[in-house]
Design brief:
By secondary structure, the chain is an alpha+beta fold. It is 20% helix and 32% strand. This is Apple domain-containing protein.
Length: 524
């Protein structure tokens, strides 16, 4: 039993309460029963924290673990030496799990091993280290591996998970050789001192938005169910302190602990600095940058009790890639509405009357035009400086340029400049303006939805028809049974009275009574 009880002395140091025992159990002054009860209760309440503290600081070949079904949130397998970070099983949607690196004080995941494919939280799911870090779920056939031949797995004090092998004695420096590290495969978060290179991608948790590096800029991209990503935010290097030299290699980005996002090419002098609110302030807590599910890039620092917002790349809501959803209209100062006035905004989305399709033209087989056209004045494309456009002399020619293009979902024409912005991705949120010279032309494919509605109506009619037939059959069968019983009972009465009947009401009452008696006697 002693193996399962926490050490009370170490526990008292980690409790979030001010109460501590001033004397040990071996002293003359012993704790009273209330103090003992308090310690017992808090030991069980803080048991997950004690489990985390007991996790290893390195995993060697032969390590193997399965998720514990009784753990509701996070099962630690490996800690860093400061116990600020932990690696282990992270429960997702109550029934799934991911291998994650967690910031222990905030319980916030900083890195996931394979965020696009999750395993089940089941005793059949197994993680092991055999030189490679491997997670396997035989039921879902999920398998992920680092494909390395290392000696040990360690978690550094900056949250970097590494697979190391031997010692590198080159340059008289005895350090392990790093075969693989989580910092090279970020998910949606960058932490301080972590390098982000041109070969990496930061991906939002919903998979819709990504951050990548160009030759001299940081770009944010949206995936709108089309063949290519659409850039919606771009920060170009100012090159004030150092120049980007063509042919000297790609740029990389690093979150600096002094409160800024630095862009570098070679050396330690940045070619650009994107400062945070905490710029050049001394912070004790962790600093991180995250690509949020709405597509915004934000920085936070840990104050000791909460995450404090430190930087926002896109400050205006309407400048986000799709703040009002599909076929939405975002007007600065007014919020969200719908492009089509007949639609209603519900739960932050407009109820789209169309279905996304890669072919926004009439059906070539049936020659049926199932494309509805929506026109709306006073609209503008978002992030237009990064949008593709053509110059046309009129609105009609702009509409024709999109109407004859089966991969075009819509167009927005500016009568003043003659710019015709082509939307080659499913319609998202447009900007509302007071300028009626800016006119939008949008395609909505109705056929699939009609088919869906008609098929649903057909199923409903079929079910209703079946129910009516069943009801008619039941009534008919019941009527037949009543007629048959009545006939049999009347025959019995005729036999008893010699064929004389004394009136319909009396006979019917007798028949009903006798039929009940017969049914009752049959079940005695």
């Amino acid at each position: 039993m002693a193996a399962f009880l926490p050490n009370f002395q170490s526990l008292s140091l980690s409790l979030p309460f001010s109460f501590k025992m001033e004397t040990s159990f071996n002293s003359v002054t012993r704790p009273n029963s209330a103090q003992l009860l308090f310690l017992l209760i808090t030991s069980f309440l803080t048991w997950p924290c004690i489990e985390a503290a007991a996790a290893a600081e390195e995993l060697l070949k032969g390590f193997e673990a399965t998720p514990n079904p009784s753990i509701p949130f996070f099962q630690p397998l490996l800690n860093d030496s400061s116990s600020k970070f932990s690696f282990g099983f992270f429960r997702v949607n109550s029934t799934q799990l991911a291998l994650a690196v967690l910031h222990v004080p905030s319980r916030e995941p900083l890195w996931l091993a394979n965020p696009t494919t999750l395993s089940r939280w089941s005793d059949r799911t197994k993680v092991f280290f055999n030189g490679s870090l491997v997670i396997s779920d035989p039921r879902t056939r999920m398998f992920w591996s680092t494909e390395t031949q290392g000696d040990k797995l360690v978690l550094l004090n900056n949250s970097n998970l590494q697979i190391q092998k031997g010692l590198d004695n080159s340059n008289n420096v005895n350090v392990p050789t790093v075969l693989w590290q989580s910092f090279d495969f970020p998910t949606n978060t960058l932490v301080e001192t972590q390098n982000f290179t041109s070969t990496m991608t930061l991906l939002s948790s919903n998979g819709l938005y990504s951050m990548r590096l160009g030759n001299d800029f940081i770009g944010l991209y949206a995936k709108f169910d089309s063949g290519s990503d659409q850039i919606y935010w771009k920060h170009k290097a100012l090159q004030a302190k150092a120049q980007i030299i063509e042919g000297n290699g790609p740029i990389h980005v690093q979150v600096d602990p002094d409160g800024w996002l630095g862009m570098y090419q070679n050396g330690t002098t940045p070619v650009d600095i994107e400062s945070f609110n905490s710029f050049q302030r001394s912070l004790d807590g962790l600093l991180m940058v995250r690509l949020e599910p709405d597509g915004n890039l934000k920085a936070y620092y840990w104050s000791g009790s909460s995450w404090v917002l430190d930087y926002v790349a896109i400050r205006e809501t309407c400048d986000l890639p799709s703040p009002c959803g599909s076929y939405g209209l975002c007007t600065p100062g007014s919020g969200c509405s719908c492009l089509d006035n007949s639609m209603e905004l519900s739960s932050g989305e407009c109820s789209s009357s169309g279905l996304y399709s890669n072919d926004m033209c009439a059906d070539p087989k049936t020659q049926k035009n199932d494309i509805k056209v929506l026109r709306r004045g006073g609209v503008e494309v978002p992030f237009k400086e990064w949008m593709r456009y053509e110059t046309t002399p009129s609105l009609e020619e702009c509409e024709n340029a999109c109407g004859n293009n089966c991969s075009c979902y819509g167009a927005v024409y500016n009568n003043a400049s003659g710019f015709c912005y082509i939307l080659d991705y499913p319609i998202q949120t447009l900007l509302g303006t007071g300028d009626d010279s800016k006119v939008g032309y949008f395609k909505i494919k109705e056929g699939a939805n009609k088919k869906k509605i008609n098929s649903g109506l057909g199923v409903g009619v079929g079910l209703l028809g079946g129910a009516v037939l069943c009801l008619i059959g039941a009534v008919g069968f019941g009527s037949y049974k009543i007629w048959k019983n009545k006939k049999r009972v009347n025959r019995m009465l005729e036999e008893e009275t010699g064929g004389v009947m004394s009136g319909p009401y009396k006979d019917l009452g007798s028949a009903s009574f006798r039929s009940i008696e017969m049914c009752s006697s049959g079940h005695r």
